[in-house]
């Protein structure tokens, strides 16, 4: 029954104080906001893979130690909340968090929805299969985004400059490769689903291999330029797009740099990234520790590859989070500039090689070496190059480019943009 008068109450469905015109059930002694009376039973949000269901307990004061997976504060289970419908999944969220317009797009899931039939991937045909420990694995496939067949390799020789054409990261086992051209796909990238949710956006995103007329895209999560596969939103005028690495991040992250789980938080004003020490703003999205450790990672640092290759080292370099070396030893072996203490770096213990983050992965780490891009303001297309020596000075900073850069390959044109300076060229982005 609707009570049309001003009165103070706590809504039994969301646990938030109200002050006007609640709905009242005299039999059950329930008091509910006008907005909460129509909360949907089953919904799907992009923060979680399964359908979540609204749940209410008539037993008051049964408070369990649960944390909302959206706002990461305690959930009082004596009030209504959304819980995961999948067996063995303990996902839980406040009612007002799960139905927030930035989290939920308004779609209601009908009763009897069967989640067992998940979205498919872009492997159009499995040509050959092999059995590994009684599990059938596709050893030869046809993929939607390549015109030749791809064969699976578990322990093949990997060249240090080979990149996955899906995520643009260095290729590693297991991977699919083309027998006719230099096309590589990590096994995980080949098996990516056609549609996936992402915690940064409320609509489902679709796997795409198309880019704009310039031959590259800009990730809406980390802001980096990239090529390869992406997930895009095709809902109306939505233009959200994420690279593969950011797409695979969830609302929680277990990173080797920190002992506690990290949670995705939207308002990070007043904090700094613990990797690069960049000041975060209120609009920034970052992963934070909720154990009062004062530890945060912006999305760019959270997606740094755990290994990188250095041209003059036969071993992969490992992303390293602390350094107890003497100050006189804090130098980068590529640019020969001093490294700042307590900053992340890449290191090879066998060869004692240390590199700055940008020196190891470059300013364009997710662009494929040798690819050409246009729309940069230069009259010719520019080529992504790495480890160039004796090259012309950068047209922005005037320094010699000693690593990844954009270079013009036209004869008698010496245009080069430094790996750190492409971000300063607004006409590139």
Automatic annotation (TrEMBL):
The keyword Repeat applies. Keywords: Metal-binding, Repeat, Zinc, Zinc-finger. Residues 142-197 form the Phorbol-ester/DAG-type domain. SMART domains: PHD (SM00249). It comes from Gossypium hirsutum. InterPro entries: C1-like_sf, DC1, PKC_DAG/PE, Vacuole_Formation_Reg, Znf_PHD. This is Phorbol-ester/DAG-type domain-containing protein. The keyword Repeat applies. The gene is LOC107927740. GO terms for molecular function: zinc ion binding.
């Amino acid at each position: 029954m609707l009570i049309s008068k001003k009165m103070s109450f706590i809504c039994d469905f969301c646990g938030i104080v109200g002050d006007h015109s609640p709905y009242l059930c005299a039999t059950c002694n329930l008091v509910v906001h006008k907005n909460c009376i129509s909360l949907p039973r089953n919904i799907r949000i992009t923060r979680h893979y399964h359908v979540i269901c609204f749940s209410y307990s008539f037993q008051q004061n049964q408070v369990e130690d649960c944390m909302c997976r959206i706002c990461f504060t305690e959930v009082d289970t004596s009030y209504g909340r959304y819980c995961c419908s999948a067996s063995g999944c303990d996902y839980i969220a406040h009612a007002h968090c799960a139905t927030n317009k930035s989290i939920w797009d308004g779609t209601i899931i009908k009763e009897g929805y069967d989640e067992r039939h998940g979205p498919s991937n872009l492997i159009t045909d499995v040509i050959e299969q092999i059995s590994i420990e009684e599990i059938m694995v596709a050893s030869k496939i046809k993929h939607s985004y390549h015109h030749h067949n791809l064969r699976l390799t578990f322990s093949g020789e990997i060249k240090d400059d080979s990149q996955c054409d899906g995520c643009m990261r260095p290729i590693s086992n297991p991977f699919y490769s083309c027998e006719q051209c230099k096309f590589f796909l990590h096994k995980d990238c080949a098996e990516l689903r056609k549609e996936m949710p992402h915690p940064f956006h409320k609509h489902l995103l679709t796997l795409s291999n198309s880019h704009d007329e310039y031959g590259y895209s800009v990730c809406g999560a980390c802001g980096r330029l990239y090529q390869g596969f992406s997930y895009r939103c095709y809902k109306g005028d939505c233009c959200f797009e994420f690279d593969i690495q950011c797409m695979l991040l969830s609302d929680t992250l277990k990173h080797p740099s920190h002992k506690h789980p990290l949670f995705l938080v939207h308002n990070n004003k007043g904090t700094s990234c613990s990797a690069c020490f960049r000041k975060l703003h209120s609009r920034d999205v970052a992963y934070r520790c909720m154990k009062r450790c004062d530890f945060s990672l912006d999305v760019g640092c959270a997606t740094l590859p755990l290994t990188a290759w250095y041209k003059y080292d036969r071993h992969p370099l490992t992303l390293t989070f602390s350094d107890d070396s003497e100050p006189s030893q804090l130098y980068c072996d590529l640019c020969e500039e001093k490294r700042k203490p307590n900053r992340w770096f890449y290191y090879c213990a066998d060869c004692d090689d240390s590199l700055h983050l940008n020196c190891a992965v470059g300013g364009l780490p997710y662009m494929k070496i040798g690819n050409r891009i246009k729309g940069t303001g230069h009259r010719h297309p520019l080529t992504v190059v790495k480890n160039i020596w004796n090259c012309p000075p950068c047209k922005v900073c005037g320094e010699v480019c000693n690593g990844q850069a954009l270079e013009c390959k036209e004869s008698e044109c010496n245009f080069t943009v430094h790996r750190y300076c492409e971000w300063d060229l607004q006409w590139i982005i």
